[in-house]
């Protein structure tokens, strides 16, 4: 169950997912550079594309937040909902009066 108090965290989750999607789209571009070259064309060194690190970080943050909301399979196993009786639900009480 999500309340108004959870909206900030839900917004953070959405933001991290949007960053992840944006970085994955940039990684799909044909013009990405994965190897740095010297002016003569020889390979200087290989390095991870910055977009990949940003995508990995955003995904890790999103997964941590998702677990807090019970959105991962393992986190759902830890969720327990107590018994709710008709006496606890104000809507049911209201409907019973009519």
Describe this structure in words.
The structure is a single chain. The protein has one domain (about 5-80). It contains 4 helices and 2 strands, in the order H-E-E-H-H-H. The chain has helices at about 5-30, 50-70, 75, 90-95, and strands at about 35, 45. It has a two-stranded antiparallel sheet. A hairpin with a 5-residue loop joins strand 1 (about 35) and strand 2. It is rod-shaped, with a radius of gyration of 23 Å. The model has no long low-confidence stretch (mean pLDDT about 80).
Please specify the SSE layout and strand pairing.
Elements: H1 7-28, E1 35-37, E2 43-46, H2 50-68, H3 73-76, H4 90-97
Count of helical segments? 4
Q: Order of strands side by side in the largest beta sheet?
A: 1-2
Shape summary:
rod-shaped
Order of helix and strand elements from N to C terminus: HEEHHH
| Number of separate structural domains | 1
Helix content: 40-55%
* Share of residues in strands: 5-15%
Radius of gyration: 23 Å
The main pleated sheet reads as: 2 strands, antiparallel
Task: Please count the beta strands (DSSP E, at least 2 residues each).
Answer: 2
Average pLDDT works out at: 82
Structural class: mainly alpha
Distance between the termini: 27 Å
């Amino acid at each position: 169950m999500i309340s108004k108090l959870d909206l900030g965290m839900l917004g953070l989750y959405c933001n991290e997912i949007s960053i992840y999607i944006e970085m994955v789209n940039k990684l799909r571009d044909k013009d990405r550079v994965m190897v740095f070259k010297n002016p003569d064309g020889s390979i200087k060194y290989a390095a991870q594309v910055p977009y990949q690190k940003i995508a990995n970080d955003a995904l890790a943050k999103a997964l941590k937040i998702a677990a807090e909301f019970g959105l991962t399979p393992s986190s759902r196993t830890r969720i327990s909902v107590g018994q709710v009786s008709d006496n606890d639900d104000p809507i049911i009480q209201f409907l019973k009066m009519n």
